[in-house]
Amino acid sequence: MYEETISGSARFILHHGPGYRAWRAAKLRAHDAAAAVSPVEIRDPARLSPGELCRLRDALARDNLVFYACAGRVGGAELRSLGRQLGLQRLDYHLCADPSGVATITDGGAQAAGEFIPYTPRALNWHTDGYYQPAERCVRAFMLHCVAKAQQGGANRFFDHELAYIALRDREPRWIEALSQRDVLTIPGHAVAPDAARPAVAGAVFSVCDDGGLHMRYTARKRHVVWKDQSAVLEAIAFLHELLDDPSGFALRYTLQPGEGVVCANVLHSREAYHDDMPLRRRTLLRARYRDSLPVH
Ligand SMILES: [Fe+2]
Q1: Annotation: CATH topology of 39-290
Q2: How far is the CA of 123 from the centre of ligand 1 (A)?
């Protein structure tokens, strides 16, 4: 069945060439960097119109990511409501989130997490969210909403993980095999992690979820991370580092403006360092992470 070939898990099976090639061709044909960075206007995040919902879903299906712009006030309740309309129900609770499950990302904003880089103005290297969590708590989607932007800096970069998969597989299929090993990336235990002390977590970079979607677990950090010592693994991550930082590549750079946000299938992302002069109006983003996938596959 054509639909099954394009959207089923066959596209991620290494020896299933036709399924992969059909999906790859459709994915690259649909890619449009200019469209990806133009936000979808929404009037009321708690009550999307059919047209707004359709535009959000179309962009998510194409890019695994969509930016939106909303003139009205958006707090945690509105953000969760927006998520529910996109099929996101199961929040990933985190020590730094409020009881509703939404975290406020600002400099020193979460007292328990003040020393962790997301809660400082420092740059955040490429990663997918929850890479330090075990497979049963994997983060399939997240939303970021900008309440206040930094005076200088703070742009995010995003890279569709499916495009990273294609680049790796096209260059060397063995790399996909190497990065799919269940012990390829180990995050050592942490005594004071933001979600309480945690044991070491080993897992794959690429895995295929029950719904046929591709999940990527990755961090470009150099410290407190152990890569499996195999030549294919080391070659693959060296290639990936270059790919993500290639200025002519697929990375989208975007500075969220107040009232704007992004919904994504936990694609690769990073953040540039920022600077705020006025402590009372410092960069503030709301973040909700989900264990549900976006219904785009
Ligand atoms: Fe993140």
Answers
A1: Double-stranded beta-helix (3.60.130)
A2: 11
Domain ranges in the chain? 1-30, 39-290
CA 119, chain centre distance (Å): 18
Exposure string for 248-264, b = 16+ CB within 10 A, e = fewer: eebbbebebeebbbbbb
Residues recorded for the chain: 297
Both structure tokens of 71: 């003139």
* Close Cβ partners of 265 (under 8 Å, ≥ 6 residues apart): 60, 64, 65, 140, 141, 161, 213, 293, 294, 296
User: What is the distance between the alpha carbons of residues 184 and 175, in angstroms, rounded to a whole number?
Assistant: 11
**Ligand 1 centroid vs 269 CA: distance in angstroms?**
6
Are the CB atoms for 14 and 176 separated by under 8 Å? yes
Q: How many angstroms does the Cα of residue 261 sit away from the middle of ligand 1?
A: 14
Q: Which two tokens stand for residue 166?
A: 């294609």
Is the pLDDT reported for residue 93 higher than 90?
no
Q: How remote is the CA of residue 289 from the centroid of ligand 1, in Å?
A: 9
Contact 183, 87 (CB under 8 A): no
pLDDT > 50? residue 2: no
CA distances from 186 to 87, 139, 224, 238, 286 (A): 31, 17, 9, 17, 28
pLDDT at 234 over 80: yes
Spatial contact of 168 and 176, defined as CB atoms under 8 Å apart:
yes
Distance 266 CA to ligand 1 centre (A): 8
97 — pLDDT class (breaks 50, 70, 90): low
Flag whether pLDDT at 213 surpasses 70. Answer: yes
